[in-house]
């Protein structure tokens, strides 16, 4: 599949310099060697390849990038590698940590590395109340970079509901939200409560629904394996080209739904391997896919390749 003219990776579409989180930002998988050490050269090449294939930027050190099992030195170097490969304006690192002070330090590291924004989960060591959430985002905002909130109540047990997001935005702590709850109804309520807060698609398998609801970007998983096809899907969806978007969505959804499953890292890395990229292994405690899971993902990926989507 050829990349559409609008998706050249040059910041086209609705991406702007003061809102660098707009467009397709890929939550990057992290290539590991056989000994499970980080292959930084391979990661730099992967970031560049994603941009060459129409993606607007990358999000290192998210869950897909296995940040929880990286050393501090590795985590910092991953950010620096991405910036060196594609420029800081295209890099929005995840800065999640158990403590607010640590998250702020990661935001400062991203700032000093030249990044233009960061993505932040709410407190995730316990079920935080609203006051704790507000204090957490206030602390990280002190680093001086625009903050994109990441709402993942499934994993964090803290739900950034529209009313709370509106408060966070009203206080100036966040500029956008990656919405992973799966509840597409929230998009309309959020637009009413905080019209200047950018909604970003946070789960691959609700892309079409949230794009039609006015999303301004997509923090994406499956472009790691199929960038051109997924970027074409995104632009068709946000432009209202339903004929193109629906056809692509139906073809890709057997893969996109894995982004919302427990085994999403292993699934996306397997698809990367199948299409000729370096996916490879994951660090423990993630384990290998079950044979029946691998068979489903392999079949769906091979069908996408046969359809010209890779």
TrEMBL record:
Pfam families: DHDPS
Keyword annotations from UniProtKB, A to Z: Lyase
Location of the region described as Disordered in the Swiss-Prot/TrEMBL record: 1-20
Name the record gives this protein: Dihydrodipicolinate synthase family protein
Enzyme Commission number(s) from the entry: 4.1.3.3, 4.2.1.41, 4.3.3.7
One of the record's GO molecular function terms: N-acetylneuraminate lyase activity
Organism whose genome encodes this protein: Streptomyces neyagawaensis
Protein family according to the UniProt entry: Belongs to the DapA family.
């Amino acid at each position: 599949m050829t990349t559409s003219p609008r998706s050249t990776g040059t910041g086209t579409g609705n991406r702007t310099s003061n809102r660098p989180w707009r467009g397709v930002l890929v939550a990057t998988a992290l290539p590991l060697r056989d000994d499970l050490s980080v292959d930084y050269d391979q990661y730099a090449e992967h970031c560049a390849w994603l941009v060459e294939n129409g993606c607007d930027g990358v999000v290192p050190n998210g869950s897909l990038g296995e940040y929880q099992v990286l050393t501090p030195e590795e985590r910092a170097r991953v950010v620096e590698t991405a910036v060196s490969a594609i420029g800081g304006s295209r890099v929005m690192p995840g800065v999640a940590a158990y403590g607010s002070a640590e998250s702020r330090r990661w935001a400062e590291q991203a700032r000093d590395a030249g990044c233009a924004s960061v993505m932040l989960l709410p407190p995730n060591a316990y079920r935080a109340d609203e006051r704790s959430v507000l204090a957490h985002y206030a602390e990280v905002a002190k680093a001086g970079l625009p903050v994109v909130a990441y709402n993942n109540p499934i994993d964090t047990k803290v739900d950034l509901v529209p009313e709370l997001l509106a408060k966070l935005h009203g206080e100036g702590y966040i500029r956008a939200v990656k919405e992973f709850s799966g509840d597409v109804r929230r998009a309309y309520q959020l637009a009413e409560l905080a019209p200047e807060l950018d909604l970003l698609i946070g789960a691959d398998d609700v892309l079409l629904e949230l794009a039609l609801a006015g999303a301004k970007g997509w923090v994406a998983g499956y472009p790691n394996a199929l960038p051109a096809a997924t970027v074409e899907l995104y632009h068709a969806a946000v432009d209202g080209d339903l004929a193109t978007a629906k056809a692509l969505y139906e073809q890709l959804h057997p893969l996109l739904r894995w982004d919302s499953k427990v085994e999403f890292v292993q699934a996306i890395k397997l698809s990367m391997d199948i299409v000729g990229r370096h996916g490879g292994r994951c660090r423990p405690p993630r384990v290998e896919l079950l044979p029946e899971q691998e068979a489903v993902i392999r079949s769906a990926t091979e069908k996408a390749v046969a359809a010209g989507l890779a």
